[in-house]
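Sanity check

After download, print the first record. It should look like this:
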Amino acid sequence: MLIDGALGPAVPCCSSRLDVAAAYPAFPDALDSGWGITFNYGILSSGFHMLAAQIHSSAGDFLTLSRGMTVVRLGDFEFLDQFDLSQATASIQGGTLLVVQGVKIRDKVSGQTKVVDVFLQWVQSIQALEIVASNTNSN
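Expected structure tokens:
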């Protein structure tokens, strides 16, 4: 795995994928083609990043697949252990943006709390709300 062009963590390879083997019966190694990793995007700074998977074959060939993404770190915290909506209010902005104001968050490591506004947008392809921005609440 590459993060912004730098070598990141190794990604475990070769778990069983019966669905891939069934879809590609002509490829004998298709059964052991699974791979994946759990990754905390919160360790990256807020903003745009490039993630890439570098795939190596047993013959020594490799292919790199890259995708860009934008990281939104609420309160600039790496990992939250509290997301309190009890005093928050919500509104629609511009017809497509859900704005949740007054969300109390807490950083798991430091215990520091902040009140933030969270901006979410519906993403049809994943059928979910995506956090697209955040700022520290001035109230």
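If your output differs, re-run the checksum step. Summary of this record's structure: Helices lie at 18-23.
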